[in-house]
Design goal:
TIM Barrel, alpha/beta, binds SN-glycerol-3-phosphate
């Protein structure tokens, strides 16, 4: 399973990268705005800075919503670095843009996926990744995990090469359940990644080991 971090915060990206467990980064316009990154040049420079930290898989989202502009914007983003994956929403022009960018060898991440039909279209268009938003479905009282399970089954039925990138992961159980369901990738905030470390028996056990070691020194 690949781990991506879902943030545009460079310190958090560095922290996850330093742990040696990071496979990529996902951003979106809301996450960029949260870091105060606005304006085309600043946004492009910020993607460049992220690419300097991680080894691969930096999702950069297009703002355009019509086919031609999406393709142009996708190409501009892809030129920043080979690590860029162009993130495109699942709308009709988006599907066309994914097909066109895929034909040119540019990797894409089809975002804002909320049902299996959308994910089938994205895979047919050749998206490298598809991003079902687990937490936002849960917010609406519809079980997000069921969508992940459906996608694993459907993509397996037809050997689609598109990877399932579980997104909008809010807590540790989301991440663990996605792993059980067979999602290829989980993207989540740093606190979910570091939260996987927590267990009181680990903390107590370590405290006792160190106390016993120190007793032996006297
Ligand atoms: O990767 C998508 C993610 O950023 C959405 O997360 O928590 O805003 O639903 P959230």
């Amino acid at each position: 399973m690949k781990f991506f971090i879902d943030t545009a915060n460079l310190d958090e990206i560095r922290e996850a990268q330093d742990m040696g467990i990071l496979d990529g980064v996902t951003t979106n316009p809301s996450l960029m705005a949260k870091e105060g990154i606005t304006g085309e040049k600043n946004i492009l420079d910020h993607y460049k800075a992220i690419c300097e930290i991680v080894d691969d898989n930096v999702s950069a989202e297009v703002i355009a919503t019509d086919y031609k502009k999406m393709v142009d914007e996708g190409k501009t983003l892809a030129k920043i670095d080979d690590k860029i994956v162009v993130k495109i929403p699942i709308i009709k022009d988006g599907v066309k843009a994914i097909s066109a960018l895929t034909a040119e060898g540019i990797r894409t991440n089809c975002t804002l996926i909320f049902n299996a039909g959308q994910a089938i279209l994205a895979a047919k268009a050749g998206a490298s990744y598809v991003s079902p938003f687990l937490g936002r479905l849960d917010d609406m009282g519809s079980e997000g995990l069921v969508l992940i399970e459906q996608l694993v089954q459907i993509y397996d039925n037809y050997a689609f090469e598109t990877e399932i990138l579980a997104a909008s992961i809010r807590h540790n159980m989301h991440l663990i359940q996605c792993a059980e369901a067979g999602a290829d990738v989980a993207t989540c905030p740093l606190k979910v990644i570091t939260g996987l470390l927590n267990h009181p028996l680990t903390e107590n056990g370590l405290e006792k080991f160190l106390a016993d070691y120190n007793k032996g020194k006297n």
